[in-house]
């Protein structure tokens, strides 16, 4: 789950960057309602449709959203039915129980609360004002709209999205009710329509009178009919048939919802990256599509990504431009399998080899440093086994990211620790750039940076808790337990090794959360409270 979040963030960064970011000043009257732990429940109970943004004051994405959200709130304040936009500062200590009640894991998080809060739904719409307004108008209206004319049909059926249409001889009866329930349940993800006349629809048998559900999609066979009106069966049919055989990923936002689905799938994920502008594109596309058809229902999902949109993914996986066209498969245990410079005719055989267990996993690594003679040793994926597991020494290892501010603050301290142990042949102080190297196995739980682990000479692995001095209170500057860094039984506070955290650092939490490629550009997970 957590991994799929990272993947999604990493792909969606493109959309965030290309979306319009208007910095218009908000007007003096505020339309966004501020809520907190004291009045949240009462306020929500009084309203049929409230959108709540959980934010943190330090979160960059929240700052970008704020003027757009306010603009949308102003427009929607005139909407009928009333749509209220509200916000909760989830970083505020007293509001934290509220945030955990709604399982908030990153900022900003938007939820739609219907009918006094009895139905809670994820906000899955755009993040700029016009998009927010359009999405919420639709969400606050009926879940399914009647299609009465061919014009109605052409306005709702296009080549960017899925539309689910119920065809009925009359708008009553159990099938119609079940269709309505389906539409209510999945309205956040799909659009729905209903009609008395199949002739109005652009595809499929136009003589049916129903009841029948016809799903229109912009890919593959373009429409599918279902006749099992059990609600769960309907949900399942819609979910299953709405995944493209091959998900496309480029800068076109219409693919965005399908990319999310791809990453949320429990399957292993095959990704073919190439230049969509290349003359060989069609050859790759058709061969890849054949393979995807062949492996349908066999635990493997397929995506084809344009190199232009995939730079984030390339850095994440440690791939190089000269390797394209390439296929990478990532399994759910985090293993990666790579076929660089693949030819269209090699795709099928290679995927089969992978399935048969005949492909070795691929590991991202920086080159092994030639002279590793600084006090803090450099570990990379390719020498991890030798330096960490097989060295027979006590190893203190820092997992860091180049962009992480807290790691920069730790660096001089780590240096000092390393220098003080330099004459001890049994101790190694080391660091690994976790963004450029795959951590070899699941022994280390690296959720943020810096993360420190200690491997004893006998092979035990222990996480190390970093404790920064939280304020400048002079009494606390002594070497009290809980406020110092103690490594190998040596307390380093006496060598001025404590960090005097600024106000800013305190708010930030102690670590920079793990995300890619830079925390400012992504929905930032809640800071940990170690
Ligand atoms: C809820 O309480 C907060 C803090 O007292 C206040 O700023 C806010 O305006 C209140 N909201 C409503 C809708 O009463
Ligand atoms: C409607 O859905 C319910 C619950 O899922 C199911 O028991 C019932 O058989 C469905 N009705 C029809 C006509 O399929
Ligand atoms: C990680 O690697 C070490 C050394 O090869 C091994 O002892 C350990 O069992 C591995 N742990 C996992 C979870 O694979």
UniProtKB/TrEMBL annotation:
<feature type="disulfide bond" description="Redox-active">
    <location>
        <begin position="404"/>
        <end position="407"/>
    </location>
</feature>
<protein>
    <recommendedName>
        <fullName>Protein disulfide-isomerase</fullName>
        <ecNumber>5.3.4.1</ecNumber>
    </recommendedName>
</protein>
<dbReference type="InterPro" id="IPR013766">
    <property type="entry name" value="Thioredoxin_domain"/>
</dbReference>
<feature type="region of interest" description="Disordered">
    <location>
        <begin position="505"/>
        <end position="530"/>
    </location>
</feature>
<keyword id="KW-0413">Isomerase</keyword>
<keyword id="KW-1015">Disulfide bond</keyword>
<comment type="similarity">
    <text>Belongs to the protein disulfide isomerase family.</text>
</comment>
<keyword id="KW-0677">Repeat</keyword>
<dbReference type="InterPro" id="IPR017937">
    <property type="entry name" value="Thioredoxin_CS"/>
</dbReference>
<keyword id="KW-0732">Signal</keyword>
<keyword id="KW-0676">Redox-active center</keyword>
<dbReference type="InterPro" id="IPR036249">
    <property type="entry name" value="Thioredoxin-like_sf"/>
</dbReference>
<dbReference type="GO" id="GO:0003756">
    <property type="term" value="F:protein disulfide isomerase activity"/>
</dbReference>
<feature type="domain" description="Thioredoxin">
    <location>
        <begin position="338"/>
        <end position="477"/>
    </location>
</feature>
<dbReference type="Pfam" id="PF00085">
    <property type="entry name" value="Thioredoxin"/>
</dbReference>
<feature type="domain" description="Thioredoxin">
    <location>
        <begin position="6"/>
        <end position="141"/>
    </location>
</feature>
<feature type="disulfide bond" description="Redox-active">
    <location>
        <begin position="59"/>
        <end position="62"/>
    </location>
</feature>
<keyword id="KW-0256">Endoplasmic reticulum</keyword>
<dbReference type="Pfam" id="PF13848">
    <property type="entry name" value="Thioredoxin_6"/>
</dbReference>
<feature type="compositionally biased region" description="Pro residues">
    <location>
        <begin position="520"/>
        <end position="530"/>
    </location>
</feature>
<dbReference type="InterPro" id="IPR005788">
    <property type="entry name" value="PDI_thioredoxin-like_dom"/>
</dbReference>
<feature type="compositionally biased region" description="Basic and acidic residues">
    <location>
        <begin position="505"/>
        <end position="515"/>
    </location>
</feature>
<dbReference type="InterPro" id="IPR005792">
    <property type="entry name" value="Prot_disulphide_isomerase"/>
</dbReference>
<dbReference type="GO" id="GO:0005788">
    <property type="term" value="C:endoplasmic reticulum lumen"/>
</dbReference>
<feature type="signal peptide">
    <location>
        <begin position="1"/>
        <end position="22"/>
    </location>
</feature>
């Amino acid at each position: 789950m957590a991994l799929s979040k990272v993947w999604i963030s990493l792909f969606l960064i493109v959309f965030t960057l290309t979306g319009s970011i208007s910095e218009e000043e908000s007007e003096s009257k505020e339309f966004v309602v501020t809520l907190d732990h004291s009045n949240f429940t009462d306020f929500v109970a009084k309203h049929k449709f409230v959108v709540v943004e959980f934010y943190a004051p330090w979160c960059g994405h929240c700052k970008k959203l704020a003027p757009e959200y306010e603009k949308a709130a102003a427009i929607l304040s005139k909407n009928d039915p009333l749509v209220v936009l509200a916000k909760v500062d989830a970083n505020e200590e007293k509001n934290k129980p509220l945030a955990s009640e709604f399982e908030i894991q990153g900022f900003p998080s938007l939820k739609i609360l219907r009918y006094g809060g009895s139905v809670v739904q994820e906000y899955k719409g755009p993040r700029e004002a016009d998009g927010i307004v359009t999405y919420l108008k639709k969400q606050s209206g009926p879940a399914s709209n009647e299609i009465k004319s061919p014009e109605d049909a052409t306005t709702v059926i296009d080549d960017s999205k899925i539309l689910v249409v119920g065809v009925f001889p009359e708008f009553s009866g159990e099938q119609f009710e079940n269709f309505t329930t389906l539409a209510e349940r999945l309205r956040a993800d799909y659009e729905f329509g209903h009609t008395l006349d199949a002739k109005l629809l652009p595809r499929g048998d136009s003589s049916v009178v129903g009841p029948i559900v016809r799903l229109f999609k912009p890919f593959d066979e373009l429409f599918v009919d279902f006749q099992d009106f059990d609600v769960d069966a309907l949900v399942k049919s819609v979910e299953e048939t709405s995944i493209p055989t091959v998900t496309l990923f480029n800068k076109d936002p219409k693919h965005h919802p399908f990319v999310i689905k791809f990453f949320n799938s429990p399957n292993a994920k095959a990704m073919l990256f190439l230049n969509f502008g290349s003359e060989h594109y069609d050859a790759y596309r058709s061969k890849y599509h054949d393979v995807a058809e062949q492996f349908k229902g066999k635990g493997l999902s397929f995506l084809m990504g344009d190199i232009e949109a995939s730079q984030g993914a390339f850095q994440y996986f440690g791939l190089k431009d000269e390797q394209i066209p390439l296929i990478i498969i990532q399994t759910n245990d985090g293993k990666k399998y790579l076929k660089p410079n693949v030819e269209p005719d090699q795709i099928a055989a290679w995927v089969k080899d992978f399935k048969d267990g005949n492909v070795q996993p691929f590991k991202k690594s920086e080159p092994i440093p030639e002279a590793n003679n600084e006090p803090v040793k450099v570990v990379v994926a390719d020498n991890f086994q030798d330096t960490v597991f097989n060295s027979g020494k006590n190893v203190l290892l820092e997992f860091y990211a180049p962009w992480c501010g807290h790691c920069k603050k730790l660096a001089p301290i780590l240096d000092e620790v390393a220098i003080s142990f330099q004459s001890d042949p049994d101790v190694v102080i080391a660091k690994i750039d976790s963004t450029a190297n795959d951590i070899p196995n699941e022994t280390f739980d690296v959720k943020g940076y810096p993360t420190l682990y200690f491997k004893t000479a006998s092979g035990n692995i222990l996480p190390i808790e970093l404790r920064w001095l939280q304020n400048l209170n002079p009494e606390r500057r002594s070497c009290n337990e809980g406020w110092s860094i103690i490594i190998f039984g040596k307390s380093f506070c006496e060598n001025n090794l404590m960090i005097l955290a600024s106000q800013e650092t305190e708010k930030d939490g102690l670590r920079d959360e793990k995300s890619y490629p830079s925390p400012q550009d992504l929905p930032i997970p809640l800071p940990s409270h170690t």
